[in-house]
## 1
Amino acid sequence: MSKEYGTKTRLLRIMKALIEQPGFYTKRKLASLYDVSIDTISHDFNALNNAGFLLEFDEKHRYSFVQEKPFRQLQDLLHFSEEDQLLLYQAMELIPSSDNRRIRLKQKLAALYDFRKLGFTYLSRPHLNKIDQLLLAKNNKKQVILRDYHSSHSNNIQDRQVEAFHIQAADNTFQAWDLDKKEIRHFKISRVSSMEVTEKDWEFENHHQLLTTDPFRIADPNQVEVHLSMEIGAKNSLIEQYPLSTPFIKATSSSNSFEFKCMMNHRFIGIDRFILAHHKHILKIHAPQSLLQHMNKLVSEFPSF
């Protein structure tokens, strides 16, 4: 390969290579790829480290960026949750199919989404410190105390001691083993006042099993299938408020009628509030029977005004 790369261009290409294939390139491979000496690559790595892009290597001296050190400059640009991505795709569908810009925009969004999956800490949220504390606890397998957790389910504020094993910073959520409840719980980062990493090691790692979440972002190993019929008003609100529900909504043969069929948490958290808020546009609750009983119980508990 001819020496066509200046220092700046080579640094950018090295960054791109390490991002696209972390843990693949050694200094020797990069030197061969860009037709420079290994010492030159070492100088390039020093420049990246000095700029805040820290590197690490495995036992075979294959390099990657340190995942726990966030890329502050990039993450404000690359923060797309699944809901954001879905909404953007829907907006792109409004561009005429004959317009090449639609294809280019989708390709760019796909590229950003793939980069987001690499595992770097997300920094587009003001609670960066809480995310970093969670990552610290997870990586060191330490228990963490959630100070003043605001729980919507129990309707109280209290400390929770947990073992956080799955963190989705972009979605403001994490899954953890709750030491008091003795089960896996799904938490929202924004509902925690502060995090305190303890010196206590994980004790229940054998129970750390990732739970599937429903479109309302509720994790539950005992999901049940919910089947509703609704008018367009409820359909629109469901998609706008909970974009992940979109694939589960189908038009029926009747005008202004749509069906929603999806696996949901068995306690119906989220879907019950949605039904109450849009009851005028809910045509029928087909299944399960336990959802009908749950809704009737909620209505019977309404206070008199």
## 2
Amino acid sequence: MATKRATLYLTILSVSLLLPLLSLKSQYQLHIFNLTLIFIMFSMSFNLVFGFTGYMPLSHIGIWAVGAYTSAILATKLGANVWLAMIAGAIMAAIFSYVIGILSFRVKGHYFAILTLAFSEILIIIAINWVDLTGGAMCIVGIPAPEIHIPGILHFVFSSRISYYYLFLIVTLGVLYFLWGLLRSPLGRTFVAIREDETLAQSMGLKTLDFKLLSFCISGFIAGLSGALFCHYQQILGPSNFAFAYLAQVLAVIMVGGTRTFWGPVVGCLILVPLPELLRGFARYRLLIFGILLIVTIIYAPKGLVGFFEEYRAKRHQLKGPLGPWQADKAK
């Protein structure tokens, strides 16, 4: 079993490394690959709180904006090193996540979702109206690209889409590796325990607020990092980059892939991010096809495609007992 899994992972990695070489003639395809990797990072960060801790953080698009604007402002207005600016953006996003979490975790359920959405809208409104800092609707332009500079040895600027692809691939694999280990650890199991029954977790002596805030901050850091990478890739940043439609797309990605599964956001992004472009030839019916796909998935695979496959595999092999910590329920 371990050999088969290792072979599968090695195959996926090999395809990922060779994929751009098959699309060298199409810069637009490389652009779609790059956006897919960014959305995988963002969706995984969202699913850490939503899928594994049991809260819907609709402030995430605002947190994404905090990471992007912090990095862009530091790099353009203060001339900071791009790598340090991106790390600072991720840290600032985590700090904002902590503040929002402190205020929002006083409530649960739909109230939590609405309250975090309100904070997100406040952040976007600030980005639109604080023109001296963010540029407002005029955007921040000329955001520098990251570069690797070793005096006398190497000077490489990430100026092409294929170079950004490999940068995003490395960061995305790093995020996936980190989250995989986190969710298999006692800390990850604590997040799942809070999701399943927070009252029971409290009765066992767990300080659930501390763990929820930790989950929120880790999620915010990853979201801020993806936002920082996105702004340096686009080299222009404005409020339109953080429209509610992006959050709706992330929700659709997780619902299609699987909310309480580790690989759900990855599968959802691989399907839904390129899908609008694949349906470009059916422009009049593109949204209709997209909607039908979403409805069919919700009706026939309410746990998402990955959850559906895991249930099928569990039934086929007649597994007993609980599944892994990144899976939602016991196989039925």
## 3
Amino acid sequence: MKAIFNHSTIRIEDLKYESLYRATFYADGFFETMCAENGCIPLWSYHVKRLFQAGKAAGLQGLNEIIESIPVYVESLSSELSGKPVMRCKLTIWREGMGLYSPESDQTNFLLSASILENPTIREINHVGFCEKVFNTWHFLSKFKQIGAQSYVIAAREMKSRSLDDIIILDAQGNISEALYSNIFWSKDDQLFTPALETGCVEGTMRNYLIDKLPVQTNEVCCPREELLHADAIFFSNALGICHLNKLEGSTFIKAQWVEDFLPFII
């Protein structure tokens, strides 16, 4: 697979050990998963904001030049995929150089890759449960997508072992935090809710977009799992689209179809 590494087109399998050192041994970086349509990224401004915030929090330098170049590189990768209209792009940034916990450099490496997006923008799922092995905890980097994602790997293995379509992660206090790949929204009595960042969830780009664009106010809350079981409708969101949840632990839900009218994609 071809990709862009530090402004050069490469094959991913040709990446060298030294380039990946701090990503591999210290998980010293972040990533963004992005949907691109016809070479453009509908949520780009939200990705940019989160990238700059993550870079500042970690003390990474040189992000301006990287971020300015990404839209051009996305168009280039679209051409490599024979101009496929919808792509899943992944941008990973990490600290360059060697060192131990104390790095030798604060300059930033980046890798941009793309693949054809096969899944539809809107889905429906039925088999979802609450995660029993992993709990989220807030810290000052928890709202970013960190490349050290072992807790999500453990949650994904639990999801697979239980034959679930997705899994809901709680925080250490038992509050709803997020789904495996997505943020969670639910409606009750004409009010809309989503977990607060204090639950340790990722501050998703689609989450922020929907909070900005939906015609109803979204209440950011810390609520126990029982709140979901009494919801009218539940949907998950991430940068690639939304997913309606039909059933959860014996409770059934209506479909919040009105949300689809506000998605930033061509459906």
## 4
Amino acid sequence: MKRKILTMITIGCIFLMLLTGCGNSSGKAGLHQSDGSFISWNDLNIDVETNYDNYGYKTEEKSPYKVFTDNDYDGELVLPNDITEIGINTFRNCTSLTGVDLGKSQITSLGWSAFDGCTSLTSIDLSKTQITSIEGFAFNGCTSLTSVALPDTLTRISEDAFNGCRSLTSINFPDTLTIITKNDFYDCSSLTSVDISKTEIVSLGDSSFGGCTSLTSIELPDTLNYIGENAFYGCPLTSIDISNTQIKTIGIMAFRNCKSLTSIDLPDILTSIKSSAFDKCESLTNINYAGTMEEWDAIDKDENWRRGSSIETVTCSDGVINL
């Protein structure tokens, strides 16, 4: 009889824990702090008397978002299921925030500087969201961020989105992506390889991978038609093949300071090479060009296009040009 009563009490306690969520804070909307304490989502309400425009500047309008800017909350934040938007500057400079669990929330928008300066954030999974664009400076300066999972709805990564994420070692790029803008992965010094070959990317913005001092390999898509200024500045790439792309212009200093680059293949549709495109490419002595010698001569090349490099020859489809 006593055993039966104890069993019934145990079952009752378990049911009560499930009903109230007691006994395990995991998954509950709110802040799960590193010391084991928990602050519910409703208790995290913050009155914000200012709003931010699309460029991160304050306006006089009251913010429609819950904003945690410059807050010293530490630990992991679990968002409620009804959240659909992470607004501008929402978590900016929350330097003790280690993680954000999106749960079952249907996020469709990620605003400018949403996680800018979150120096303790180690990873984030956006793969189940409906985001089409990651806005500028979204994860700028997240120096502890090691991995990011992106959604298959993403088409654009706006400027400086992952600038200075020096611990980022891997990132998946969905097939739907079409644009990587300026400084997006600048100074991501732990990124060793990038594969965007299956994407629909048409443009790599200025300094998009500049300062990625561990980047030794990159696979580019056939759809690519533009490489911006300083796009690969200082990257230790050993080879790069863009012969099957739609690239017509190689921007100013696009491969500047790529001192380990020994091989590059250029497409026959190339129309211009800007100033210092291969500056400081000390190991690059030859360029492989898919077109003829006559077509190479017709390319609009700045007078300083190979300044600072060791390029001496161009191997074309019908012969070799000595420079």
